[in-house]
Amino acid sequence: MKSKIGLSLFVLFCVSSIALSGCGYTTRSMLYGKYSTIYITPFLNKVDVTQESYTANKYRIYRPMLETDITKKVINRYLFDGNLRPIKEGEADLVLKGELVEYRKDPLSYTSDSEDVTEYRINIYVNLALWDNKENKILWEEKNFNGNYSYFVKSSMVNPGNNIVVSEGAAVNNAIDDLARRIVERTVEQW
């Protein structure tokens, strides 16, 4: 009887130890300790507006000053996150370089007669590179990194109460917010 209780306590102790030790998950930044500051270069607009129009790119459009809005939102997101403090380039541990390469407004759903669009998705694509400023080496690079937001321009007849109509300007702002959040997560979480 004592050996069964002892064995049960030993198993309980082992299971508790494993459960409490977890699998190493943490919400703390992977950059913690080594890097504390970042400089965000102004995003460059590399959207090619001279391309010929064809079916696959007919929803590509140009939006003036989008790269400036992206730069501001990314800086603000780093400030909000708090893991990396944005500062001047010469003093920063890291430098984030980015360029806007595509802005798309794709239709997602139509009215029942298929004549009018009721829902769009804004997609913003950027190329990114994160540099270690002190060692002058690239830490990671991402091509066609995406932020997006879907929105309704008119209420559909299928489910009219659940479709909140949003302006294109608000949708673009939300897509930039999504992009900025993803950029900061990519930088500090290093999944």
- CATH structural architecture: 2-Layer Sandwich
Question: Can you identify the CATH class?
Answer: Alpha Beta
> Helical proportion?
25-40%
- The CATH superfamily bears the name Lipoprotein like domain
Mean pLDDT: 83
For the record, give the distance between the C-alpha atoms at the N and C termini, rounded to a whole number.
Answer: 49 Å
CATH topology-level name: Double Stranded RNA Binding Domain
The helix/strand series, from N terminus to C terminus, equals HEEHEEEEH
Number of strands: 6
Can you tag this structure with a few keywords?
191 residues; Double Stranded RNA Binding Domain; 30% helix; flat; alpha/beta; 3 helices; 6-stranded mixed beta sheet
Fold and architecture overview:
The protein is 30% helix and 30% strand. Helix 2 (66-81) crosses helix 3. It has helices spanning 2-21, 66-81, 168-189, and strands at 37-40, 44-45, 85-86, 94-110, 117-132, 137-152. It has a single domain, classed as Lipoprotein like domain (Double Stranded RNA Binding Domain). Strands 1, 2, 3, 4, 5 and 6 form a six-stranded mixed β-sheet that branches.
